[in-house]
């Protein structure tokens, strides 16, 4: 910052206040937390002792930590964005704690040491997903066996199972069925009865389902309770983590992915639109669109004809209530367009207009989707393709309310019932921003995002450009889906597009400078200088909220995720265990640059803080 002492942190906080920032947040997904020496099991956790040191480091500097989705992931897929909507990820259980008196030593030290010693990514700054998925499960089974024979925490466990039965019973039943069917992917189970166990189509099937459920619960009673035990341990650890963070003035912000996991799809399949999947139209990341394969909530199950919540709407509201209750710092909603104006495509097809894809509520001419359309035929611009942002050209007040009813009656309502307001909602609205989404965001004054490295420099009014970023947003240079800003800067130097970026930066950040040509030359040739100015840009903007991904803050030249690709490299990057030795960004220098970018009068008025930053 240059340093991490209390004095420097205090100076940074003073500078952030001077620049009108309400929130400064570090983005780091759970699996990316580091480990202490001798405690690297192969996966990061916000519940570990190393995480506590991150909270200590963040105290007095950040307001919150933005975590990733926390749902249970599949053995074959480490992406947190395909996890369960209710169950938490057992990989976030800190095994070390289970070896202590607090947990009645239900995990042996020897087992714990073996998990650590056999980690193939020991101290390499990467997760060992396949390894720890199995090793963690075996260790937890040992802990479960010992927990059962003891007496400690049994009443709390019974209370937990009762209070969370509405989701825990379904998720644990799926676990038992996965064992019985030999895999955890229900579409390839041999038993048609098991596939539709919670979705019977007749009284006869209902009777068969009830008998099968009773059979499975008896046969796999221990496995079902083991699943519930893991969720119980995780919740208790998370509660302690929240308390620790709160004492240090930190909140945690959850991340709600747009997806439903296989487990959720199986349990709630009667609520989804048959034959349709959620995806993304052709865009920057994929010319054919992104075929996510996630199910689409049936609009007729979301709301009843009188506008009240249907079965699907109640499910979604319960989900958000759980998230807000567990995360008083708020919830980041990934792909907010998926709640307002989702792009859907036919199963087995590509998510392209020519193959029948379209927006669920914005396709009044579509032969199948028109029944759900909120926009009418007269509201569309027929000169544009259905995947274009401005395809819907006009909307009245009533239509905007209908587009936003899930936001209003589910998300905002859930926040209010948990004692929060709409400022606890962080909306990821990057990329596609259709007119209906834009209208709903404005109607409810929701906080969207502005990703500065995605600015289109040839467009002076582009919303991601510094001078155009408004107050009620979250500004950042990148998210988990972007390369570090250092990569961006290196790719920009001595290029034509880089010159356009630099020209805008000089106009916005050095408006009063007399040596603009020299600045342009330096910025187009010096990647390190360009990176600093680009970081300063988000602080110089009017945005009241700032997020920074851990790779950018700690100057890690590596990528966390590459959208549209798969493989072990994705989602595996961690903060190195020696992160305190890394050459972190110099926040004091960057903030001084941001203050000076506001103009000489502003700098003069705040000369005292500038002296502290530059002294």
Q: Would you kindly provide a brief summary of this structure?
A:
The chain is α/β, with parallel strands linked by helices. It has a domain at 20-256: Glycosidases (TIM Barrel, Alpha-Beta Barrel).
Distance between the termini: 13 Å
General form: globular
Main beta sheet? 8 strands, parallel
Mean pLDDT: 96
* Strand proportion: 5-15%
Task: Describe the protein's architecture and organization.
With 615 residues, the protein is of the alpha/beta class. The protein has a domain at 20-256: Glycosidases (TIM Barrel). The chain is 43% helix and 9% strand. The strands form two sheets. Strands 9-6-3-2-1-12-11-10 form an eight-stranded parallel beta sheet. Helix 18 (496-509) crosses helix 20 (527-540) and helix 20 crosses helix 22 (587-597).
List keywords for this structure.
single chain, 615 residues, alpha/beta, TIM Barrel, eight-stranded parallel sheet, four-stranded antiparallel sheet, 24 helices, 12 strands, globular
Describe the SSE topology.
Layout: H1 6-18, E1 23-27, H2 49-58, E2 64-66, H3 109-117, H4 129-149, H5 154-163, H6 165-181, H7 192-195, H8 203-219, H9 221-247, E3 251-256, H10 262-267, E4 272-280, E5 290-297, H11 299-302, H12 311-326, E6 331-333, H13 337-340, E7 343-346, E8 358-359, H14 397-403, H15 405-417, E9 425-427, H16 435-443, E10 448-451, E11 473-476, H17 485-492, H18 496-509, H19 516-525, H20 527-540, E12 545-549, H21 550-553, H22 587-597, H23 600-605, H24 607-614
Parallel strand pairs: 1-2, 1-12, 2-3, 3-6, 6-9, 10-11, 11-12
Antiparallel strand pairs: 4-5, 4-7, 7-8
């Amino acid at each position: 910052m240059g340093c991490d002492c209390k004095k420097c942190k205090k100076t940074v906080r003073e500078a952030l206040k001077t620049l009108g920032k309400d929130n400064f947040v570090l983005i780091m997904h759970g699996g990316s937390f580091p480990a202490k020496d001798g405690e690297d099991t192969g996966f990061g956790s916000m519940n570990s002792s190393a995480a506590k040191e991150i909270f200590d480091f963040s105290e007095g500097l950040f307001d919150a930590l933005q975590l990733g989705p926390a749902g249970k992931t599949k053995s074959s897929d480490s992406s947190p964005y395909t996890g369960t909507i209710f169950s938490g990820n057992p990989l976030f259980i800190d095994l070390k704690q289970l070896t202590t008196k607090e947990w009645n030593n239900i995990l042996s030290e020897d087992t714990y040491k073996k998990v650590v010693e056999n980690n193939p990514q020991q101290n390499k700054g990467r997760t060992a997903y396949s390894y720890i998925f199995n090793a963690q499960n075996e260790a937890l089974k040992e802990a479960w066996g010992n927990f059962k024979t003891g007496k400690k925490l049994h009443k709390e466990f019974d209370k937990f199972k009762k209070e969370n039965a509405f989701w825990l019973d379904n998720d644990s039943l799926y676990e038992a069925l996965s064992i019985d069917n030999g895999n955890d992917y229900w579409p390839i189970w041999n038993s048609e009865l098991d596939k539709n166990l919670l979705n019977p189509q007749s009284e006869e099937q209902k009777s068969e389902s009830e008998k099968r459920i009773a059979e499975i619960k008896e046969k796999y009673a221990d496995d079902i309770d083991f699943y519930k035990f893991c969720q119980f341990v995780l919740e208790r650890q998370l509660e302690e983590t929240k308390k620790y963070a709160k004492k240090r003035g930190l909140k945690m912000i959850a991340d709600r992915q747009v997806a439903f996991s296989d487990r959720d799809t199986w349990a709630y399949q009667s609520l989804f639109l048959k034959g349709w999947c959620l995806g993304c139209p052709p865009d920057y990341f994929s010319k054919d669109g992104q075929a996510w394969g996630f199910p689409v909530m049936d609009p007729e199950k979301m709301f009843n004809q009188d506008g009240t919540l249907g079965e699907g709407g109640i499910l979604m509201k319960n989900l958000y209530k759980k998230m807000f209750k567990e995360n008083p710092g708020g919830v980041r909603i990934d792909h907010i367009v998926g709640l307002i104006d989702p792009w859907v495509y036919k199963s087995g097809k590509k998510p392209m207009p020519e193959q029948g894809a379209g927006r669920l509520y914005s396709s009044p001419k579509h032969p199948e989707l028109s029944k759900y359309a909120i926009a009418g035929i007269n509201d569309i611009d027929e000169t544009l393709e259905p995947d274009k942002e401005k395809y819907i050209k006009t909307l009245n007040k009533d239509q905007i309310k209908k587009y936003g009813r899930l936001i209003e009656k589910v998300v905002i309502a859930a926040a209010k019932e948990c004692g929060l307001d709409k400022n606890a909602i962080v909306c990821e609205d990057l990329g596609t921003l259709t007119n209906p989404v834009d209208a709903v965001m404005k109607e409810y004054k929701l906080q969207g995002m502005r990703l500065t490295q995605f600015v289109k420099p040839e467009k002076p009014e582009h919303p991601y450009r510094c001078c155009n970023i408004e107050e009620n947003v979250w500004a950042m240079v990148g998210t988990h889906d972007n390369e570090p800003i250092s990569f961006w800067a290196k790719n920009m130097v001595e290029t034509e597009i880089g010159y356009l970026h630099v020209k805008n930066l000089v106009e916005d950040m050095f408006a009063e400078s007399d040596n603009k040509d020299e600045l342009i030359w330096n910025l187009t040739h010096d990647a390190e200088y360009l990176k600093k100015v680009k970081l300063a840009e988000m602080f110089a903007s009017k945005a009241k909220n700032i997020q920074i991904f851990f790779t950018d803050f700690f100057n890690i030249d590596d990528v966390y995720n590459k959208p549209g690709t798969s493989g072990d490299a994705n989602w595996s990057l961690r903060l190195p265990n020696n992160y305190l030795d890394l050459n972190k960004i110099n926040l004091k220098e960057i903030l001084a640059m941001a203050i000076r970018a506001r103009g000489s009068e502003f700098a003069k008025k705040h000369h005292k803080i500038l002296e502290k930053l530059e002294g």
